[in-house]
Amino acid sequence: MKPRTPPDSPLLFDTAPLVPDFRLELKARKAGHWPVAGADEAGRGPLAGPVVAAAVILDPKRIPEGLNDSKQLSAQRREELFVQILATATVSIASSSSTRIDETDIRKASLDAMRRAICSLAVPASYVLTDGLDVPPGLDCPGQAVVKGDARSVSIAAASIVAKVTRDRMMARAHNVFPDYGFAAHVGYGTAQHRAGIEKHGPCSLHRMSFRPLRKGEDGPEMDELIPE
User: Fold this and answer.
1) What does R_g of the chain's alpha carbons equal in angstroms?
2) Domains of the chain, first to last
3) Top enzyme class of this protein (predicted)?
4) What SS3 class is residue 37?
5) For residue 46, pLDDT beyond 80
6) What is the DSSP pairing of strand 51-57 with strand 90-96?
7) pLDDT > 70 fraction of the chain, expressed in percent and rounded
């Protein structure tokens, strides 16, 4: 038999972007778990501010159109969907402060915020879908960690939007208290503007002192290394 010639173009499913849907939620429901919550967090990477987690139980009959990974949406579209999610779904939000992050670590602080968000839902979840590699310990229900979950599950996507919009609003308000760092523009990420503010004014109470380059000593650079050449 003559060997098959490989195709000269990549497979459609290798290149098509992921689009979140309700299949994981329906699978859990078929297994006897209902309602199903999606959970995600925002703000693991910034040098300042809290990490914010959200848990969302969508109404299958009123799922807002256009739910997706919050990073794939414009700020305006996130705000629009945020309002729709709060109007149609059961939502809970929790956060871990920079102090909490420094006392533990960002992973533990993120999972703790996610756990508190899930446990604070007005309607208890029977099953939880979380974005990433971990299900928070200490839940009253089983759960499943979903890699790229915010691009696979509309419930996780909704949680990612709620967490992102909430944190962005918190950092915009923080700018009014600490205007020297530009929090409203970069929401705490290590941009050149932010690093210049730290260099000039020193860190404030919102900064994560366990993060490089704020951390001192042999594990982190000194502050004069903050400004790019």
Assistant:
1) 20
2) 22-201 (3.30.420.10)
3) hydrolase
4) strand
5) yes
6) antiparallel
7) 87
Could you tell me which of 50, 160, 168, 170 has the C-alpha nearest to residue 110?
50
Segment 154-167, tens digit of pLDDT: 999 999 999 999 99
Query: In 70-203, which ranges are E strands?
Result: 90-96, 127-131, 143-146
In residues, how long is the chain? Answer: 229
- 80-129: per-residue pLDDT in tens? 999 999 999 999 999 999 999 999 999 999 999 999 999 999 999 999 99
Helix (H) or strand (E) holding 100: helix 98-103
Task: Give the C-alpha separation, 82 to 41, whole Å.
Answer: 14
Task: Identify the H or E element spanning 44.
Answer: none
Structure-token match 């759960």, residue found: 143
Query: Residue 68 and residue 7: Cα distance in Å, rounded?
Result: 31
Cα separations (Å) of 7 from 14, 216, 223? 13, 54, 53
Q: For tokens 């300042």, what's the residue?
A: 48
Report CA-CA distances (Å) from 116 to 87, 113, 177, 180.
21, 5, 27, 32
Comparing 229 with 187, the larger pLDDT belongs to 187
At residue 223, does pLDDT exceed 50? no
Sorted by sequence, the CB contacts under 8 Å of residue 224 that are 6+ apart come out as 199
The 3-state DSSP class for residue 106 equals helix
157 in Cβ contact with 68 (< 8 Å): yes
Distance CA 81, CA 33 (A): 26
Please tell me the predicted confidence (pLDDT) of residue 226: 37
Is-contact 163 52, C-beta < 8 A?
yes
